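Lecture 7 notes. Example A: sequence first, then its structure tokens.
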Amino acid sequence: MPGIPTEAGTMTRRERERLMRRREIMEAARTVFAEKGYIHATLDEIAQRAEYGKGTLYNYFAGGKEDILFAICDEIYDDLCQLIQDAFSPQTMATKPFRDAFHKLVTSWIDFFVERQELFMIVVKEAYRMTFSDDRDKAAYFHRQGERVVNVLIPPLESAMQAGVLRPLPPHSVAHMILGNLKGIQMHMCLHAGDDCREHTHGDPVPGSFEAAAAFLTTMLCDGLLAQSEPYLATNTLETSQEA
């Protein structure tokens, strides 16, 4: 799967021009995918939007439309990893409680999704389609990307557990649970909002505004459903998870 070229101050003019053209092609593809959907978008339309010949697109993306999609996915997952790193940066963790950092992550995640709503939905659909296809390489690609995001979230969770802020649960499982809920709230906001997440007004179970939705998810994941603790159940659950 193609990756994104690494930017460096030592790049030659030719390398900078190639990077610029690559970005222009990807930006054109994002627009066409958003307008037509991935399945119905054609390489000819992408080339026309980018104002390059179709042959030029193959020079940068040998696998055509599919390679462009994977390059876009690479960037999206890069950005998601960066969101987590920014939310739990050393500066933030040194000056703010874990709950505030977590709330920042949820808010940033929702905003990131809404700003790229059409493209994000296309990526989600294609990820599911390819993950459950017979092509093991494509399925493995999306699995690796998902695990990459999980692995970026694990260190701040481990630090919070070691500091006694979070319960000492398996961090890998906790990371999966958090990311699963973030994806779930994205889908809820869009499925109940018609064509635009910004018009989301349903009051149950997710409040309408981004801030209210972030506060809701932060409360649910940090405080849980119980109105008060149940020591026996909590102890048994923790012992079971540690044995597993």
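Example B, a different protein, same format:
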Amino acid sequence: MHRRIIQFQWARLLALGSVHFMADLFSNVLPSILPAVRRHFGLSLFQGSALIVVLLLTSNLSQLAVGHVRARKSDPFFLYLGLVLAASISLLGLVPTGTRGFTSICGLAVVSGIGIAMIHPDALRGVHTIDRISPASTTAVFMAAGYLGYAFAGWISTLLVSRFELKGLLPLVFCPLISILAVRSLGIRLAVEQDTPAEETTGLGRPSLPFWMIVGLAIPTALSTTIVGSLLPTRLVDELGFKLTFGGISATAFGLGGAVGSVIWGAVAHRRGELRCTVIGLLLGVPFLVLYLFLMAHRMAILLLLGQGSSCFPHSS
């Protein structure tokens, strides 16, 4: 009986991991194929970058409202709706070219960003209902699933667009059905936020990191990581002459590094302390980034992205 309970909890964790996978997949489709989008719609680099800004700002700022509104809701309705809306970025191939092309893509970016924002807070609250598995393991699996989704987007989106142009993205619209069916079949409910005393400590019996310190570390790290990840394909394809698929594979390498790094750093931080591991990880990422910027014109420099992603990507979240 105990073994079956553990297996059931792992199934729930993997289902919620697939939700995070989908959310981060759709967040990285547009950056990965930005060179193709710019060519197809005749957009400048500024306009292309603006599209990414719209997507990221919408998805990140909307999470504040979603987290507040849904704090005491246990049903996973927003997970389902968010997955459907996030997939709307796959409809780029249906947007007509012309003067309204840029505005239409902005609209898709807003809708997709809102969907991504609806997914993250509720999916994380779903993870908080999982017991019989250590918090270190649930966090590592959940975060790794997101990074794998980010990585997979770079590969599959550029592959589809290279072969079938922007309309090749249309099959991705049906991918969220996998996660929706998994969550529904397992009857997953979400943890409801409870009021806790301000002086309460973490489950490890020690105070958590001060919020201001987390923000001070996360904002510059997330900003720099997002810039690298979002404009990497554009730099490789438009300025260095690589194929669109190589730009996507480079984004994949960056995300895969983050997936592996989240598991490793999660295990190490559990024993050595979060702040120490965060500082060490960020410092380790500096030489990888500097070397890559100097050597990115060479194909083998892609290996440095694995190290860069594993060092900095997990700490940006």
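Note on Example B: Residues 287 and 308 are 8 Å apart (CA to CA). The domain at 2-193+204-316 is CATH 1.20.1250.20 (Growth Hormone; Chain: A;).
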